[in-house]
Amino acid sequence: MSGRGSARWGPGGELDLVEIDAETAALARDNAERNGVRARVVAVDVLRAAERREAGLVDGAADLVVTNPPFLIAQAARVSPDPARARAHALDGEDGLGHWIKASLALLAPGGRFAMIHRADALPAIFAALERRLGDVAARPVYPRAGEDAIRVLVTGVKGSRAPARLAPPLTLHEADGSATAQAREVHEGRARLWP
Known about the structure:
Blueprint: E1 5-9, E2 15-19, H1 22-34, E3 40-42, H2 49-54, E4 62-67, E5 72-73, H3 83-89, E6 90-91, H4 96-107, E7 108-119, H5 123-130, E8 134-145, E9 152-159, E10 166-167, E11 171-174, H6 182-188
Parallel strand pairs: 2-3, 4-7, 5-6, 8-10, 8-11
Antiparallel strand pairs: 1-2, 1-4, 7-9, 8-9
Helix pairs in contact: 4-5
């Protein structure tokens, strides 16, 4: 999935994959089918509420929204000249990430869980966008190796919860020699949860 995609769990265990790029959406559809995953792949821009509704994505209906938004701000980064790559990697405007989070949260039902991965340096913008929208917010730093700065952060929360925010235990991906940590292997093999 490109940076413009999201996954949304609906009532009854339905899985919707949302992807802006039609070619990537077709690949996701094929991949789901080959792996026996029952999923509906929707090719729309998650930031456009009217497009979401027209595609059958109902606001306030998902129990879980998992998203991997574009990591860059188009006006502040060197963006690929290829339009598809640029769209996958960068959002427009200083508050592009805030708009992305608000659109994702619009899909979420009260009591539903939100999960997102992003750059660690985006935490202030993430917290600002989540303020008064989610509770039980947990930020889990992701370290490339022990002793190095976090490169990513996993952020989760519950819509309508009033539980306080917390810093969750970190996830360290690699040993000093570059091999995967036991913790990372457990996540990859489905034996451990990615978020708390």
